[in-house]
Design a protein that fits this description.
The chain is mainly beta and 381 residues long. It has 4 helices and 30 strands. Bound molecules: calcium ion (4 copies).
């Protein structure tokens, strides 16, 4: 039969169960009912002068030997022209790593898969099939063969860290985002096989429950139970990540620890140890310590929230006394800084002292106006 050479070289025909025309045929043998997403007769899509083949779909983790040969290329020129044709495939799995996944028969054009496939290692193979004459020249236009590896759920979620560390201020509003934990699943992205469901396994201290975990995102939020650092300054959570929608299966489940530190806010005012203090100095002395005002503050020891700020509210109009905070002990140190006849003449010289919990936030302002503690040191000379 006379044909134009151009047509003969351009047509790449796929042979399924019929054998028409001429050219390099590809027979896809392994995809029966394998991938329902493919069109019903997927193996041929004519695009102008070339035939594009639909991908071969092979499932990972399976013995595929019964599906061999998975594909076959064939050139009619062998019969028509009495040529001796040699078939060849190149690509990943044959001439590129991972080697040895596929083998082919150079006389029949059959392609076999030799190994159990791992989608997580190689999700896709692109092979090229050739029909060569005795001198190694293409007698047909080479044909692309795409092999898609179908996923199975053979990976469990793995946490990206053994221990996640976060923090949140005490008194935070309900549903405040505290932190996010993260796990990964190596199965096919955006499918149920790689979906992860998170869960809090345990919380220490357990009651009342102060955190909840978004099952899908891994985000940890506060509940409506108010956090109080002065009660519990940290929490330890054990969390788990399960495959899919979190169904309980016999597969191993990875766990991780979450440590959440409760950050202090200044929600306690200094409380004085003694409401009345007495101090004594000998006359004609200056720059001597008269008394120390001891206070307690339940906020974080050593922090600005804990340190008291002492000021004279009244009684020091003459400027005889100075008061400052001992940052180590949080005591107010009252010092006589100048001598004067008025002071000396009076045996009792009461000094009402006012100190305020002072810091930048608005909460501190509240304390200054409404929650100041007072003590009255009486000084005798
Ligand atoms: Ca998985
Ligand atoms: Ca998989
Ligand atoms: Ca405080
Ligand atoms: Ca506090």
């Amino acid at each position: 039969m006379a044909r134009s050479p151009g047509r003969a070289y351009a047509l790449l025909l796929l042979l399924i169960c019929f054998n028409v025309g001429s050219g390099l045929h590809l027979q896809v043998l392994s995809t029966r009912n394998e991938n329902k997403l493919l069109p019903k007769h997927p193996h041929l899509v004519r695009q102008k002068r070339a035939w594009i083949t639909a991908p071969v779909a092979l499932r990972e983790g399976e013995d595929l030997s019964k599906k061999n040969p998975i594909a076959k290329i064939h050139s009619d020129l062998a019969e028509e022209r009495g040529l001796k044709i040699t078939y060849k495939y190149t690509g990943k799995g044959i001439t590129e790593p991972p080697f040895g996944i596929f083998v082919f028969n150079k006389d029949t054009g059959e392609l076999n898969v030799t190994s159990i496939l791992d989608r997580e290692e190689t999700p896709f193979f692109l092979l090229t099939g050739y029909a060569l004459d005795a001198r190694g020249n293409n007698v047909e236009k080479p044909l692309e063969l795409r092999i898609k590896v179908l996923d199975i759920n053979d990976n469990e979620p793995v946490f990206t860290q053994d221990v996640f560390v976060g923090s949140v201020e005490e008194l935070s509003a309900a549903h405040t985002l505290v932190m996010k934990i993260n796990a990964t699943d190596a199965d096919e992205p955006n499918t149920l096989n790689s979906k992860i469901s998170y869960r809090i396994v345990s919380l220490e201290p357990a009651y009342p429950p102060v955190f909840y975990l978004n099952k899908d995102t891994g985000e940890i939020y506060t509940t409506s139970v108010t956090l109080d650092r002065e009660e519990h300054s940290s929490y330890t959570l054990t969390v788990e990540a399960r495959d899919g929608n979190g169904e309980v299966t016999d597969k191993p489940v990875k766990q991780a620890q979450v440590q959440i530190r409760i950050l202090d806010v200044n929600d306690n005012i200094p409380v004085v140890e003694n409401k009345v203090l007495e101090g004594m100095v000998e006359e004609n002395q200056v720059n001597v310590e008269v008394t120390r005002i001891k206070v307690f503050d339940a906020d974080e020891i050593g922090s600005d929230n804990w340190l008291a700020n002492f000021t004279f509210a009244s009684g020091n109009e003459g400027g005889y006394f100075h008061i400052e905070t001992d940052a180590q002990t949080n005591e107010g140190i009252v010092t006589l800084i100048k001598d004067g006849p008025g002071v000396v003449a009076q045996a009792c010289n009461p000094i009402p002292a006012l100190w305020e919990a002072e810091e930048g936030g608005s909460r501190g302002q509240e304390f200054e106006t409404s929650l100041a503690n007072m003590v009255k040191p009486h000084l005798y000379y």
